[in-house]
């Protein structure tokens, strides 16, 4: 049955049972090699305001292309890295790459564009996390307002609650934007919304997928946007694949969309090209011609 539900749940099943099969071992070996051997890279997915038509930011997404295993999904190797204790190293690598790339874009004179980075719960256990981030940003000549960290609800239910809240306060005070990813899919209570210095709620793709047909999902999305707005938070919709979804979302007050409808995650070269096309105007250059918000 686990196998029917797909590859990821199959791995999860094995992990839970404490079994080690060949596939897991190959992945583990591969991941360690990928880290050392430079087989990881980043893809970047634009976030676009469909009303103002401005390109407002992008998300860095980790990619692993393995010569033997092929393209391995982060949905598979991130949980593995967490389990193996490799996520801190992976996370550091991602933060280094993002800061360096931002620094390069700035040096080349591109309009500065905020980049968001996904953060695993384990990374927030390190009391030096904030200091390391500020050090990196400084070394690369990047202002902290250009970095956003995407936390999931699972990040917010650690045992070291107090230390973690301090850490998030430090990041926020230093100018780093904090957002909550996959909103509505975790198990934590909503109380973190008033305890933590969050600025952005990302509506999970699972609530967007069946729009506009699914009325219940429409009501949920409407309620999330209403709550976020009342709390002074920005909203971003994930997984926007169609014009109809974008139309509905902007009508409900969610203007920033991320998804295949506007742009898939793209290579550094492709993003650099888009940044040139976008230029000083900051407008997204590839709206469908007849898009009228
Ligand atoms: P996420 O942070 O929620 O990222 C959004 C995921 O949705 C990405 O999958 C993206 O490629 C995909 N996506 C974007 N637009 C669409 C769309 O219109 N339709 C569909 N079906 N999918 C869309 P990806 O890159 O496979 O990453 C999966 C997850 O892996 C991420 O979910 C994030 O939780 C995790 N991840 C990726 N990179 C990192 C990283 O550097 N660190 C950590 N800790 N986690 C990461
Ligand atoms: Mg994310
Ligand atoms: Mg997400
Ligand atoms: Mg998601």
TrEMBL record:
Annotated ranges, domain EAL: 24-279
- The organism's superkingdom is given as Bacteria
UniProt protein name? PAS domain S-box-containing protein/diguanylate cyclase (GGDEF) domain-containing protein
What is the originating organism of this protein? Marinospirillum alkaliphilum DSM 21637
In terms of the whole protein, what range is present? 575 to 867 of 872
């Amino acid at each position: 049955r686990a196998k029917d539900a797909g590859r990821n749940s199959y791995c999860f099943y094995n992990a839970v049972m404490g079994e080690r099969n060949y596939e897991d071992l190959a992945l583990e070996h591969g991941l360690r090699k990928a880290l050392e051997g430079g087989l990881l890279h980043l893809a970047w997915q634009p976030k676009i305001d469909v009303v103002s038509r401005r390109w407002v930011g992008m998300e860095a997404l980790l990619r692993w292309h393995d010569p033997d295993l092929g393209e391995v999904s982060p949905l598979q190797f991130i949980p593995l890295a967490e389990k193996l204790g490799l996520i801190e190293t992976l996370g550091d690598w991602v933060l280094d790459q993002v800061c360096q790339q931002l620094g390069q874009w700035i040096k080349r004179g591109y309009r500065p564009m905020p980049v968001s980075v996904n953060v695993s719960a384990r990374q927030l256990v390190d009391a030096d996390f904030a200091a390391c981030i500020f050090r990196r940003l400084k070394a690369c000549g990047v202002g902290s307002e250009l970095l956003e960290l995407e936390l999931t609800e699972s990040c917010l239910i650690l045992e070291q609650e107090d230390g973690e809240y301090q850490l998030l306060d430090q990041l926020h005070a230093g100018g780093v934007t904090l957002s909550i990813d996959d909103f509505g899919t975790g198990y934590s209570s909503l109380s973190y919304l008033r305890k933590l210095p969050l600025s952005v709620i990302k509506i999970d793709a699972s609530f967007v997928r069946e729009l506009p047909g699914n009325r219940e999902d429409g009501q949920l999305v409407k309620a999330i946007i209403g709550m976020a707005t009342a709390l002074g938070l920005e909203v971003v919709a994930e997984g926007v694949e169609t014009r109809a979804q974008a139309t509905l979302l902007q009508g409900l007050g969610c203007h920033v969309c991320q998804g295949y409808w506007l742009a898939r995650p793209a290579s550094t070269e492709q993003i650099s090209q888009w940044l040139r096309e976008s230029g000083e105007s900051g407008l997204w250059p590839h709206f469908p011609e007849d898009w009228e918000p």
